[in-house]
Design a protein that fits this description.
The protein has 554 residues and is α/β, with parallel strands linked by helices. Helix content is 45%, strand content 14%. The strands form four sheets. The protein has a six-stranded parallel sheet with strand order 12-11-10-9-13-14, sandwiched between helices. A three-stranded antiparallel sheet has the order 3-4-7, with no helix packed on it. β9, α17 and β10 (421-428) form a beta-alpha-beta unit. The relative contact order is 0.08.
């Protein structure tokens, strides 16, 4: 901004437009920076590579890995910055073009007061005999057009004008269609409009090539201090030649070419992987409107807690949906558990024959495409001695993979695990939500009890709602039984919401001087509560426990 506000070579364009040119150019520089950043967080393979490299590097801090897990939040933040700077850039140029238009149509109406200088600058190309030696990009006008249409028309004629208009419209469409309501209810609309980024970056690379903001190049032959007050002598005086101007250079490509290349490589990798054959080996219909899909894919390697993107071309060629892997790396297949809560998931259940109407031979199942796996915060659980895992509803899925992997790895006595204690909390809205996961919990519970390590997994299940008065009486009568009446597990179900402050305090007292990893998958409201308690109960100095909060982000 200081360059355009203070340097002599931009004095005349500042004179015609006022301070708007400096504001517009600073906004443009901020737009270039944020346009460069907006693509990087959605390069999922790059993020996974950096996270994987970081996890094996002892000099890479834990906090940096957690920042990589917030890539989508950063993407949204950059989008808000783009919106803000777009408004600044567009509004500033609206004032600039208004002043330039008035200098063309009424050169005595200027931002400053010297009408003679204003007229000389607007007519510089004609007076100097060089049609390319202009500083006012509005070279003609038709004031007879009503409602200011001529001003709008003149603003759209230059390359910077019409590309800027397309950029603005495309960005508004992309931004407005990326709201949570649109993403959840009209995903294809979100997908299609978001892919207008191709037009956005194409226009951005072209936008600056018109060089609409020009600078003076003959300051020695035309000194501003000596010549600005005597425009009538320009060209007739040896010390005051006509000012000569050159186009501004396009700079957007310098900012964006690197991220664009990385993103093209990203999409190429995604396309190649989506074309690889995926064999659906089994489809299981669980209670509570949950289906399990077991698959195999050549070269597929995963870690506990990772997620994949799944596409079913027979439903939609554009919809990719993220699902956490619930299988363990030690198994000969990979699987996902999907809750049937939307149109796409219900259609998927139907085409896979899991809706109960008919059974489909595995050989006749529709083709599925898989992209991934991608790393998340959950894979860091093995870096802690003590872990606190919290899953809300279907958010329990990443911990299914982790617990199953720990179970299978513990069968191999040579596989030494750093982790020695897991506190597991599952918050469910109704009784039916327990059914599909309890079998795994029971197997793990029995396994560690047989090994004499019953203390290894301490799990707590909370039922927040979903019981009738009759059920409550029945549960009360069975309270003294050894097995829980709802889950069939040894650990009794708690009713209501957890008292997180007391829970964190208790875990902190049991693990003094230990780093405790807190891992969560679920709604944002509960995430804030857990994050606040992690910070509140962390004791960075002394013998208290240190809680490190990690949240799943897709």
């Amino acid at each position: 901004m200081l360059v355009y506000e203070t340097e002599d070579r931009y004095y005349y364009i500042r004179y015609l437009t006022g301070p708007g040119v400096s504001v517009a150019k600073s906004g443009g520089a901020a737009l270039n920076l944020n346009s460069m950043l907006i693509l990087l967080p959605v390069c999922r393979n790059l993020i996974s590579y950096l996270r994987g490299s970081c996890s094996t590097n002892q000099f890479c801090r834990r906090s940096f890995r957690r920042q990589l897990d917030k890539n989508i939040a950063f993407h949204k933040l950059v989008a808000y910055m783009l919106l803000m700077w777009t408004i600044v850039h567009v509004v500033a140029h609206m004032f600039n073009f208004r002043n330039l238009y008035l200098n063309r149509t009424e050169c005595n109406h200027t931002f400053y007061s010297d009408a003679e200088l204003s007229c000389a600058l607007s007519d510089n190309a004609e007076l100097s005999g060089d049609p390319n030696n202009w500083i006012n990009p509005i070279l003609s006008s038709n004031p007879k057009l009503p409602f200011g249409l001529d001003l709008i028309l003149q603003g759209l004629i230059p390359i910077a004008g019409w590309t800027g208009a397309i950029l603005t419209v495309v960005f508004i469409v992309m931004f407005s269609s990326a709201t949570e309501f649109i993403r959840r209810s009209y995903f294809e609309t979100f997908w299609v409009t978001h892919h207008l980024f191709v037009i956005y970056f194409s226009m951005l690379l072209i936008h600056g090539t018109g060089g609409i903001i020009r600078s003076q190049i003959n300051l020695e032959e035309h000194n501003i201090d000596d010549c600005r007050d005597v425009p009538e002598t320009w060209g007739n005086n040896a010390t005051c030649a006509y000012p000569e101007f050159k186009d501004g250079s396009a700079g957007s490509w310098k900012w964006c070419i690197g991220p664009i290349f990385l993103y093209v490589m990203e999409r190429t990798i995604r396309f190649v992987r989506s074309c690889l054959k995926v064999t659906t080996t089994k489809v299981v219909k669980h209670p509570s409107k949950v289906i399990e899909i077991q698959m195999k894919k050549s070269g597929f390697k995963m870690q506990p807690g990772q997620y994949i993107f799944l596409k079913c071309p027979s439903i939609s060629h554009v919809q990719w949906h993220p699902f956490t892997l619930t299988s363990a790396p030690e198994q000969d297949h990979f699987s996902v558990h999907i809750r049937l809560v939307g149109d796409w998931t219900k259609q998927l259940s139907k085409v896979l024959g899991a809706d109960g109407e008919e059974t489909i031979n595995p050989e006749n199942l529709p083709r599925l495409a898989v992209d991934g796996p991608f790393g998340t915060a959950s894979i860091d659980i093995f870096k802690y001695e003590v872990a606190m895992c919290v899953g809300a509803g279907i958010g329990v899925t990443p911990f299914a993979s982790i617990l199953r992997s720990i179970w299978l790895r513990s069968l191999n006595q040579k596989d030494n695990l750093k982790i020695r204690k897991i506190y597991f909390f599952w918050i469910c809205p109704d009784t039916s939500a327990f059914e599909w996961f309890t079998e795994l919990l029971e197997s793990i519970e029995n396994h560690f009890a047989e090994q004499g390590r019953a203390h290894f997994l301490q799990y707590n299940i909370y039922l927040t709602r979903g019981w009738t008065t009759k059920q409550a009486k029945h549960l009360y009568l069975q309270e003294e039984q050894e097995i829980d009446a709802i889950t069939g597990l040894r650990q009794k179900t708690s009713y209501g919401r957890p008292m997180w402050d007391s829970i964190f305090k208790h875990i902190g007292e049991e693990n003094k001087g230990v780093s405790v990893g807190v891992f969560f998958c679920g709604p944002a409201a509960l995430s804030r509560v857990l994050h606040e308690n992690s910070n509140k109960h962390s004791k960075l100095l002394g013998e208290g426990a240190r809680f490190y909060y990690n949240k799943e982000n897709f």
